[in-house]
C-alpha cells in the first residue's frame, strides 16, 4: 500500500452513498492534481484528514502539499474512492448485477458500508418506516462470505487433491484460491495463524472453510460502518441498538446530506463552514463578515442541522469516515523531504510537500521503494541515518530524506 489506496463504498440503494461520495469528493482541499494512473468512471478522489507534521514544528503557515491540502495542521491526503452502487441482497447469486459489483470490490483495501440508520428504507431501498438497519450490517457480511465461500467450496475437492499431490503448504494452497480477491500470502497466512487450526488441510470440513472465509473477509476487507441520516428523528433508537452490538472502532455517525448542504451554503457565501467542524458562522453572529443574509427557511434549516447533528455529535461525521478507514487499515503518514533540516524540497517552496500513507510497521527501505521507486543509497531521519529495515514509527522517524544511489 502506498499511493494506491482504494476505499470501496457499498450499501443498499438509497442509503446515501452518492450523497456521501459527493461530500467527500468536493473538498475545498483540492489544490493539486493527483497523478493516479487512470481514474475509472466509478472511481473518484476523496480526501482523508490526518494531523500533519507541520503542526508539530509550528510550520502550519508554510505547509504546501503538492497533492490535497493542509489547513490549520489538518492535512487532506488524496485517496481513491470506488462507488459500488447497485449491490442488493442476493447479489452473490447474481441478483441485480450482483457479481459484477462484488468483483469490483476485490480491489478495495477497505470498505465503507453506508447504512441508512433512520430505518426509512427497506432491504431493497424502498421508502418505509421502522425498518431495522442492523439487518443491513449482517446482510453485507453474509453477502461477502457467501460469495467467496460458494466459490471456494465449489473448487475445494480439486484444490484438496492438488494440495495432497503437490505436498504444498496450506498458505500456498489457500492463497491460490484467495488471490482473486486481492489477497497476498501475508494476508492468507494471517488468516490461518489467527484461527489456530490443528487439523491438516486435507481434513478441513465445511464448517472450517466457513470459519476461514469469515476471517478472510474480516482481515482483507476492514469495514467502516457509516450510520448515515443521523439528522432523522427515528435514528437515535437504531443507533443505540447497533452501538450495543458492534465494535465501536468500526462505527461512524454521519449526516451526508447536512455536509453537502453546509458546503453548498459556504460556496454560495451564506456561511463560513470548515469541513469536519461543528461551527457554522452566519452574518447574524458576525455582522462584519461579509456573508450574505439568510432567508427564514435557510436559517431554520441551519438551526435544525445544528440541533440534530452538529451540537449533538460534534460534526456531520462525514470527514470521520475516511479518517476511520485509515485507522482500520493501520496506516500512518510519512513525509519524504529533500532537506531534513528545514523539511523543504526546494528553497521558497514551503514545507512537507509530499506525504504518503503506509502500513504501520513498513520499513524505511520499503518507503524508499514507494517514493523513489528503488533502493536509496542512504536514508536520513531527523536524528541521523535510518536503517533500511527500521520500521516507520509515527512522530519518531516519519520524516525521511532519501539519498539516491549514484547509479540511479
Ligand atoms: N435525512 C437524510 N437523508 C439523506 C442523507 N443522505 C442522503 N439522504 C437522502 O437519501 C436519498 C438517497 O440518497 P442517495 O445518495 O441517492 O443514495 P444512494 O445510496 O446513492 O442510492 P442509489 O444510487 O440508489 O444506490 C436521497 O433523497 C438523499 O437526499 C442524510 O444524511 N440524511
Keywords for this entry:
408 residues; alpha/beta; Rossmann fold; Helicase, Ruva Protein, domain 3; 4 domains; 7-stranded mixed β-sheet; 5-stranded mixed β-sheet; 12 helices; 37% helix; binds guanosine-5'-triphosphate; GTP binding protein; ATP hydrolysis activity; YGR210-like_G4; P-loop_NTPase
List the helices and strands and how they pair.
Blueprint: E1 6-10, H1 17-25, E2 43-51, H2 53-56, E3 69-71, E4 74-83, H3 98-105, E5 110-116, H4 134-166, H5 170-178, H6 185-195, H7 206-220, E6 223-228, H8 235-245, E7 251-254, H9 256-267, E8 272-273, E9 280-281, H10 296-313, H11 318-328, E10 331-336, E11 356-359, H12 364-372, E12 376-381, E13 384-385, E14 399-404
Parallel strand pairs: 1-4, 1-5, 5-6, 6-7, 10-14
Antiparallel strand pairs: 2-4, 3-4, 8-9, 10-11, 12-13, 12-14
Helix pairs in contact: 1-9, 4-7, 5-6, 6-7
Bound molecules: guanosine-5'-triphosphate.
Residues 11, 13-19, 85, 125, 228-229, 231-232, 255-257 line the site of guanosine-5'-triphosphate.
InterPro entries: Beta-grasp_dom_sf (IPR012675), G_OBG (IPR031167), GTP-bd (IPR006073), P-loop_NTPase (IPR027417), YGR210-like_G4 (IPR013646)
Keywords: GTP-binding, Nucleotide-binding
Domain OBG-type G: 5-274
Description:
- The protein is of the alpha/beta class.
- The protein is flat.
- Strand 6, helix 8 and strand 7 form a beta-alpha-beta unit.
- It folds into 4 domains: 181 residues, Rossmann fold; 79 residues, Helicase, Ruva Protein, domain 3 (Orthogonal Bundle); 48 residues, no CATH class; 73 residues, Ubiquitin-like (UB roll), CATH 3.10.20.
- Helix 6 packs across helix 7.
- The strands form 3 sheets. Strands 1, 2, 3, 4, 5, 6 and 7 form a 7-stranded mixed beta sheet that branches.
- The two termini are 23 Å apart.
- Bound molecules: guanosine-5'-triphosphate (GTP).
- The site of guanosine-5'-triphosphate has 17 residues, from helix 1 and helix 9.
